[in-house]
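tool=predict chain=A
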Amino acid sequence: MARSGKRSAEHAWIFQNKDHQEVGLWILSCEDYFSRNIHQWELPEDRIIYALSRMDGADLAPFKEWY
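tool=predict ok
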């Protein structure tokens, strides 16, 4: 049986704004997840809600509430 060249999408990791985490890489991981699961995202707002759900930490709470 031939193997498909498409890998299943993995969820973006949880971003906590730690010194060792790079926000640019996190954004790329979200974008990769969106493009591999394009059928899930009817509206751009759905992507924003997903990204906000992948953020955690007290210093990010005001941003999440504001958005």
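The chain is about 45% helix and 0% strand. Residues 41-67 form one domain.
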